[in-house]
């Protein structure tokens, strides 16, 4: 198989790439470089040969831990850059100019330096915030003392003037007595000042009053601008407060309350002259700290800028190293601990490239022994790999969302490229709406490079990812819109004048009753004369309903035919004779015959009732057809087709389980004696042992499975055909909605001959068209087309029980990290 390896694969989406299980024996000294080159190649999916070991028991657990620590430091740097409003500089640079050991030491030094700068900056910032708060307390609380002193002096003057007016002899004696009494009873009041969050000020005041039973005096002043809290570092609106109290007990209560409310306390002298001096000192210290903080911030920004220049390069290197060691941990090490053994799946075409990568790793690492490449023979099912490009990948993802194709089974993605947008367009047919979708898609295609390199929102990213699907949908919508002759529901005589004309001048505003055919048939699509007439809806209903049945039967037949190619490819004659043939007969005996009747009726212009024909084909197969006869020998044909349909059901159900049982018995008898193999091959077979090779054959399970499959197909043939009528229903709904918006909004507004009403009507029409027809209807038609492919088409042949080929790739590792 290795001889078939070529330089590049054929671009074939019909079947997945041929794969083989390979074994790589890598010397320890060149294993790291070999895995790195294979990661660049991205064409091998490694198997985990150490699945029984925990991550900590594996060979390279220490190296992964080192890479994880470096990744943590890089995340720390990124967070610091984002906080500083910087973004890492993306530039192309080679990763080879810096090894992992040097990078680890450098990252450690940079982290220590940055942590030290942050700690110093936080310490200085906290001191600065405390000084700013202290200055506010000095200013605001100082005003309390200043106003109290002013009021005391005013009161003293009032008392002095009152005493001067009283000239009696008793007054001085009483005054001395009172003064003596006041001095003996005088109590020294203490005070606590600081700032409390404005949101908590009312609760703070209430708790103080209750805790001290009203034996405090609280004074508050609002700070005009938010201040930076020294503890949290956030901007907070605060009030300056001063609490006056008496006694040590009250002081302790107040201190606890301040601590509970997060109030920052600042003490200062009662002397007003000292307060002014302290304000001057604090202002000077604030200026000095501000200068120091600015210098520190500049130094920190320069360090972050230096880190940002190499951040992407370091990040890529760490990710690569971590993914390499993860892969090396999947390899088993031999007893001599000199070689690593790897197993994995790779496409056959990649054989030469993998061998070249191993040889290059041997040369670059100066290894004495080269890597060994071997192909292993196994019964295990390989992964599924389709080599897609940016156009076909989105269509393949539609199929993969249902299920990954089994290895080398027929891929519906090939047909989905055409059938999916076409069935969408059948439901969405309007060439005006198709042009709007096309313009939106062209914008995505023009901006493709820009959008590919930046992060988009979930919906935007999904839309951008399916841009080529939407492109095909819009082109097919223009095509079907031309067939339906609808441009925002308005018909145009694009290819020739209408084939119908008025019989006389009085029928100008009438229906088709007064029209006669005056020209050749309209060459492409629906004649514009049908639009707006009384018979438009019955005509289009009949046309679209019959067209839906024809499309549905054609696609279901395609699915059954693909099941034949699957059976032929895998060499299953049983599936050809007892699944494909009875299925194709059953479907076409009923609904294939209906499709032929529809075509004959269109060609001949017959007025036969096809509902009557199909119903009485079962209820009265020998009855005379009368006016419903479309061709001679129709009754005999119907009897033969009915008989074939009835015969195909037991044909599909009974033989296959018995044949499978007979085949199983033959295999069991043939495996009673197995010839001896050489040691090398027996080891390979043991390695790739298939656990299902000797599974017991349960005839009852197989028979029940076949019974379910037969019932599902027979009932599904009816329900799936009916399901395709959604093409007619959604096409009709889209056309009628478009017509309502045009006639009841735009034309109605136009009829008022008022520019203001016309502008409002145009805005409503545009919003309704975009919101309902271009967004909701697009999504609805997309989902219905998805259903038709997943259920009606793919269930005829597609098993979808495979698993995807995920090669070891540095590109995929970067995407997963992001």
TrEMBL record:
GO BP, sorted A to Z: vacuolar acidification
Record's bilayer topology term: Multi-pass membrane protein
UniProt keyword list: Coiled coil, Hydrogen ion transport, Ion transport, Membrane, Transmembrane, Transmembrane helix, Transport
Signal peptide residue numbers: none
MF-aspect GO terms: ATPase binding; proton-transporting ATPase activity, rotational mechanism
Chain coiled-coil ranges: 93-127
Subcellular location: Membrane
Chief localization: membrane
Spans annotated as Disordered: 160-181
Cellular compartments per GO CC: vacuolar proton-transporting V-type ATPase, V0 domain
Record function comment: Essential component of the vacuolar proton pump (V-ATPase), a multimeric enzyme that catalyzes the translocation of protons across the membranes. Required for assembly and activity of the V-ATPase.
Family: Belongs to the V-ATPase 116 kDa subunit family.
Protein name according to UniProt: V-type proton ATPase subunit a
Organism annotation: Daucus carota subsp. sativus (Carrot)
